[in-house]
Amino acid sequence: MRKYIAEAIGTFVLVFFGVGSAVLAGGGMGLESPINITGISLAFGISVVAMAYSIGQISGAHLNPAVSMGALVAGRINMADFIGYALFQTLGAIIAAGVIYTLATNSAGGYDVAANGMGQNGWGAGYGGEFFMISAFLFEVIATAVFLVVILGVTSGNGSPMMAGLVIGLTLTMIHLVGITITGTSVNPARSVGPALFVGGTALAQLWVFIVAPLIGGAIGGLLHRARITGSDD
């Protein structure tokens, strides 16, 4: 149970500071000098670095059901742990989204979730670069697979464990720099579920892509690692 609680806390931190950077400091609150895509990308990446070096020794700091899926396929965890990790990661993300919602709506200027959103993932007309669903799905699969290749490689027996947290965080930053305009960047079903529950509507209708595509990408990354194409645990 200790590792599951660590995953809930770690995912809370990732969503609170990552999504929170977009909602509370990214222009939604009407700030004169909002942070940009680079700032939001760094918030996600730095959050992962912080959690990797603080709870990594307890749970591995997956913070993401897609990462846990990759670990399952690669043979690093069993199905029971995958289910426990995914449930607690999602719980942490939902709590974080709830705190962000509370902070945003308790300000003098108020906050219109319908107009400004909650950092939810999406695609189509009126969202980001208005990419079609196929683009959103492909990006999420490819980006998550690359993310898992990096994670499993750098944490393998032949990897660089001391540098793992930094490398993983920088990789997530890289993914966000490209993906925010396409989908808002998920590569993490838990991160997508939290905000979508508070926004509803289109965010919930499109949520399936941000659950299915990252899990497929995670499984691909796990398969590549298990086949020793991108690394080995030996």
From TrEMBL:
Q: What is this protein called?
A: Aquaporin
User: Can you name the source organism?
Assistant: Sulfitobacter donghicola DSW-25 = KCTC 12864 = JCM 14565
Task: Report the transmembrane regions from the record.
Answer: 12-31, 37-61, 82-104, 131-152, 164-183, 203-224
What Gene3D superfamilies is this protein classified in?
Glycerol uptake facilitator protein (1.20.1080.10)
Pfam families given for it? MIP
Give the record's membrane topology.
Multi-pass membrane protein
Would you identify the family this protein belongs to, as annotated? Belongs to the MIP/aquaporin (TC 1.A.8) family.
Q: Record keywords: Magnesium included?
A: no
- The keyword Transmembrane is annotated on this UniProt entry: yes
Where is this chain's protein located in or outside the cell? Cell membrane
This protein's GO cellular component annotations are:
plasma membrane
Per UniProt, the keywords (alphabetical) are:
Cell membrane, Membrane, Transmembrane, Transmembrane helix, Transport
